[in-house]
Automatic annotation (TrEMBL):
<feature type="transmembrane region" description="Helical">
    <location>
        <begin position="168"/>
        <end position="189"/>
    </location>
</feature>
<feature type="transmembrane region" description="Helical">
    <location>
        <begin position="409"/>
        <end position="430"/>
    </location>
</feature>
<keyword id="KW-0050">Antiport</keyword>
<keyword id="KW-1003">Cell membrane</keyword>
<keyword id="KW-0406">Ion transport</keyword>
<protein>
    <recommendedName>
        <fullName>Probable multidrug resistance protein NorM</fullName>
    </recommendedName>
</protein>
<keyword id="KW-0812">Transmembrane</keyword>
<feature type="transmembrane region" description="Helical">
    <location>
        <begin position="235"/>
        <end position="260"/>
    </location>
</feature>
<keyword id="KW-0472">Membrane</keyword>
<dbReference type="InterPro" id="IPR048279">
    <property type="entry name" value="MdtK-like"/>
</dbReference>
<comment type="similarity">
    <text>Belongs to the multi antimicrobial extrusion (MATE) (TC 2.A.66.1) family.</text>
</comment>
<comment type="function">
    <text>Multidrug efflux pump.</text>
</comment>
<feature type="transmembrane region" description="Helical">
    <location>
        <begin position="93"/>
        <end position="116"/>
    </location>
</feature>
<feature type="transmembrane region" description="Helical">
    <location>
        <begin position="353"/>
        <end position="374"/>
    </location>
</feature>
<keyword id="KW-0813">Transport</keyword>
<feature type="transmembrane region" description="Helical">
    <location>
        <begin position="313"/>
        <end position="333"/>
    </location>
</feature>
<feature type="transmembrane region" description="Helical">
    <location>
        <begin position="386"/>
        <end position="403"/>
    </location>
</feature>
């Protein structure tokens, strides 16, 4: 990626997007295909397994939040020390990262192994689904060492400017998972048929493969124990906000699953299938978020407020155009989309109804996703966090519960109304920002 001033400062916004978005979209596409293919094979094997994946999804998000949030703290500290040429200190932080990854893995593995049965029973009354949740959840959590180490080592490499190795590792890990899924689930090539356990083993194997690919450059020797307290404090001072932000998504998905479990397991499965498709349709929007941060950060620092505003205009035009494609798919072909994963008529019936309500939310969702990124890039971290937490904690779950009290069909109104409210509040913050900078804009 070019970093000279003529790039972010003077290059056409569309050209910047076209230059830096494709690598981001490629990595996200592979991850989206992994999520879809994983559910595809599990759905072909059993309906209970598909429901189990929906239930275990918040736990996986929580692991990712903890691992990535810690990695962000490590990444930021390493970059800081490299910037002031304290290379030994940067190596020290990188070495502590591996130890933290092991500690997180052990704590998560033990906790999830012991609590998984209770968690499963909290989400469903089906003995078959409970058994699948316990099987998949225990394997995925106990075998998550690859997820934690890969997340840490990836951030170490990125802090040193190596973006290529982590991308190759993530793609290779996802492909490994995709290839192993049918082999282990259905027992191909003489391998015993493992069912949903096979899907879990495929997942953790892909994570380990990715970790091994970044280990050579990412692993650093641990410093002496006396260095740990201060460095860990610095790491989590920067990492905890990111952990909390990502963990809010776990909260709202867990909450919505709990609400839908009061109606049926099929409703939980239908919501889970939405999240599978969501990862695919949100790739362009996620790439836009990644692109606008450096553009706006650079131009805000350079006091080019008009260019920041133009960046947002272009981002909205692209975001709405791309998400409109998602809206058309969710409105007009929800049944074929659901049929990719399941033949259960009840899941399809519920999903068709839900997808059409959710599809309406895609256009206002552009603002709900882009305004927090703009605020983050302009140093308004509190407002950015407020928007995200408001959306995931104070709107999704309470509104989901409220609407569900009027009847199951009303539950789906949660999605468009949450996105509209979040976008309105985000626009108010955005408008206030430009009012405060009016003098700069006219210079």
């Amino acid at each position: 990626m070019e970093t000279n001033s003529s790039f972010y400062g003077t290059e056409k916004i569309n050209k910047i997007f076209f230059k830096i978005a494709p690598p981001v979209m490629l990595a996200q596409l592979i991850q989206a295909l992994y999520n879809i293919v994983d559910s595809l094979f599990v759905g072909k094997y059993s309906e209970s397994g598909l429901t189990a994946l929906s239930i275990i999804y918040p736990v996986q998000l929580l692991m990712i939040a903890l691992a990535v949030g810690t990695g962000v703290g490590i990444n930021t500290n390493i970059a800081h020390f490299l910037g002031i040429k304290r290379y030994k200190k940067a190596d020290e932080v990188a070495g502590i990262g591996f130890s933290l990854a092991i500690i997180m893995w052990i704590l998560f593995a033990v906790s999830c192994y012991l609590l998984m049965p209770a968690y499963a029973r909290l989400q469903t009354n089906s003995d078959t689904v409970i058994a699948d949740v316990i099987t998949y959840g225990r394997i995925a959590c106990v075998g998550s060492i690859g997820l934690f180490t890969e997340s840490i080592w990836t951030k170490v490499l990125q802090a040193n400017g190596d973006m290529k190795t982590p991308m190759i590792a993530q793609i290779t890990g996802a492909i490994t998972n995709i290839v192993l899924d049918p082999i282990l689930i259905f027992g191909l090539f003489g391998i015993p048929k493992l069912g949903i356990a096979g899907a879990a083993f495929a997942t953790i194997t892909g994570q380990v493969v990715a970790a091994l690919l970044v280990m050579k450059k990412g692993f650093h020797r641990s410093p002496s124990l006396c260095k740990y307290p201060e460095d860990i404090r610095r790491i989590y001072a920067l990492g905890i906000p990111n952990i909390i932000m990502q963990a809010t998504y776990t909260f709202y998905i867990f909450g919505l699953n709990m609400i839908l479990a009061g109606f049926s397991d099929e409703a939980v499965t239908a919501l889970g299938l939405y999240y599978k498709w969501q990862t695919f349709f949100f790739i362009p929007l996620g790439a836009l978020q990644t692109c606008i941060v450096p553009i706006i950060s650079y131009n805000y620092a350079a006091k080019s407020i008009d260019r920041c505003k133009h960046t947002m205009t272009v981002a909205f035009i692209w975001g709405i155009a791309l998400m409109f494609i998602g809206t058309l798919c969710f409105e007009f072909i929800p049944e074929p989309m659901l049929s990719v994963f399941t033949k259960d008529s009840e899941v399809i019936r519920i999903g068709v109804q839900g997808f059409r309500f959710i599809g309406i939310s895609f256009i206002p969702m552009v603002g709900a996703q882009i305004y927090p990124v703009f605020l983050q890039a302009t140093g308004e971290a509190f407002k950015s966090s407020f928007l995200t937490i408001m959306r995931t904690v104070f709107l999704f779950v309470p509104l989901g519960y409220l609407f569900s009290r009027f009847g199951f069909v009303y539950f789906w109104l949660t999605f468009p109304i949450t996105e509209v409210i979040t976008t309105i509040v985000g626009f108010m913050f955005y408008r206030r920002f430009y009012r405060q900078h009016k003098m700069i804009v006219h210079e």
